[in-house]
Amino acid sequence: MKKVIRIKNNNVYIGSLKVDMKAIKNFAFIAGTAFVIISSASLIKKSADIVREPKTAGEDPITDGTLTQESASSKKTYEAEYVVQNCDTLSGIVASYQTDPNKMYGIIEKIADKNKLKSPNSLRAGETITLYGIPEEHLIDFGYTIDYTKTDPEYELEDLSNYIDEAITYAYITDDNAQQFADFEAKYSYASNIYAKYMEDKDELLFDSLIDQYRSLAQEISNLTGYDYSHSIKAHKISETKGLGL
Length: 246
Prior knowledge:
By secondary structure, the chain is of the alpha+beta class. It is 45% helix and 13% strand. It has three domains: 5-49; 63-142, Membrane-bound Lytic Murein Transglycosylase D, Chain A (Roll), CATH 3.10.350; 148-246.
């Protein structure tokens, strides 16, 4: 015998059995809400279980490990002082060492800004300006080099000192390497005191010992942070000496 289904006053009757549709709707709503809550809790737990790896030592806090002098895709470039000659133009000077038109404009703007030029065309013969964006192979054109054997040995000491100070800012100290950093800081503090004494006395024998210490410290902080020394090397004038008479 078939059951007759009738609807009356929002209720469903299956034969003589009354089905309260409002109660069923309420139950469905509660069950659905509970499902959403349980599902959300499960997702939150899974998210909490994900271990986020910290930045590795030496990673740039902005570029996530891409450490270059000017941009992620460019080679390291250098700056050098230049005495303006008759008929020089800023675009002509820059074109002598940078032929990429996409880079030339930015370099010209930087030189004009850093040297506080009223305009890129406001050069005066005899004035000294600082050039930027010079590739290593063109340094010789301006009488500069990064080869310390052709300049003053003190320049290497200065660059090493600047490098160590900068590399320390990339330190990522953990429980595993905390003691190594503490040992490094103690050695660097001692070397810094020797450096200060050398700057007062200009003792060549003291310099020989000091440069060895700084080279060793530079290698140590490079290993600890992953920040390479090449980022801190500056170009210096060839054969220009300051204190050792070399």
